[in-house]
Amino acid sequence: MLILIKSFFVDPMKTLQQLAYALLVSVLGSLVAKEGSFIFVPLVWGIFFAFALYPISSWFERKRFPRGLAIFLGILGVSILAFGIIYLLLNQVFGLIREIPEIEANISGKMARYSKELNLFFGEEWISSDTLPSFDYLLSSFDFNKTLFETGKSLTLIGIVPLYTFLLLYYKDFFAEFLVRYSSKNQQTILHWVNDSGQVIQDYLVGMIRVTGIVAFLSGLFFYSIGVEFFILFAVFIALMNLIPFVGVFLSSLFAITYVFLTTDSLIYPLLTFVSLWGIQLLENNLITPMVVGSKVKVNALAVLISILIGGWLWGISGMILFIPLVGILKITLEKSEQFKAFGFLLSDDVQVNEDSENFWKILRKRIIKQKK
User: 66: buried, middle or exposed (CB in 10 Å: 19+, 13-18, 0-12)?
Assistant: First the structure.
């Protein structure tokens, strides 16, 4: 940034021209990414899964399986596991749908009861049960045609991703040869960049799968202990939404707490659900994720938040998940360039916080360390 400011005073027209080119490329790139999401989203998912499944297919190849069969067996194993989970979740979803009339009756009863209690508390007709929206009205507000279209679109994308994954793994030597020919002068730099980027993707995906499994187990254990009938559905839903940092946990917890509130007669259970999910989230953020995933992506929280917003704007939920490792790859790319290394540092998690005075947490840690010595 200092170089840019300095160059502005040396040659302002050239600097403005460079800024205009950068802005134009950013705008056009964003438009292409947004309008071409139907192509780019499954392709990026295919690249990510190709890196994740590479150890499995490589293991089969070392066992003297043909490459095509080795890749097929890897994708088949993951697909069987995924379809098993989906089948189990669909059974829970259909059971939840069958309970909609009972939930509707609970909503109407609770709304009437709480409106009556509020009217007695305020001493006037503060809320009328007739003015409250009915469950049928809430259902009618959803656009089912649009939902079905988006569902069909998502299923189409899901079908394309395994094909991308297979072809990317099958032609991996072809792509490696392309990179060698393209970067004849900087072969080592390009190959190191590919290895580092692949390691970031692989570590992130494998780590997040483990974290998702742990969060699903803990959430399912809690929901089962309080008697929630569809505990598997809510546990998996919370674990999957946890992949979207900041936003996903809030939305999934709100949905789960609302269901517990509507299906129980005491406020203790919704309150207990809130405290337990909050505790699981604290455990995941401060213990599980650092131990399982570590700082593989090594991107600071501000860059992660901005990448989530940009990814959500461009590619929806897929963008919120994919843009986090993509920013990690961007950081690696910038750090390997002498000209843009400072921007790579701007994305890194090497953040130094210089406080006016030493905080109580650091003092407590020092005392604990001294006592141990």
Answer: exposed
Q: What residue spans of 123-143 are helical by DSSP H? A: 135-140
Give the separation between CA 200 and CA 298, rounded to whole angstroms.
Answer: 9
- Can you name the residues that pair with 299 across neighbouring β-strands? 348
Three-state SS at 29: helix
Tokens describing residue 70: 């080795």
- Whose CA is closest to 71, among 178, 158, 174, 171? 171
Q: What is the C-alpha to C-alpha distance for residues 202 and 207, in angstroms, rounded to an integer?
A: 8
DSSP string, 222-254: HHHHTT-TTHHHHHHHHHHHTTSTTHHHHHHHH
Locate 298 and state its tokens. Answer: 């090594």
Of 309, 354, 353, 351, residue with least CA distance to 327:
309
- Determine the Cα angle at 67 with ends 62 and 71, to 5°: 100
Polymer length in residues for the chain: 373
Report residue 182 CA to chain centroid gap.
33
Q: Provide, rounded to the nearest whole percent, the portion of the chain with pLDDT above 90.
A: 8
Which residue in this structure is represented by tokens 């297919």? Answer: 57
3 state SS for 52-75: HHHHHHHHHHHCCCCHHHHHHHHH
Of the candidates 38, 19, 287, 50, which has an alpha carbon nearest to the alpha carbon of residue 169? 50
Q: Residue 148 is encoded by which pair of tokens?
A: 């079905």
Whether residue 211 contacts residue 204, with contact meaning beta carbons closer than 8 Å, is answered with no
pLDDT tens string 4-54: 455 545 556 776 777 788 788 888 988 888 888 888 888 988 988 898 888
List C-alpha distances in Å: 4 to 1, 16, 183.
5, 10, 28
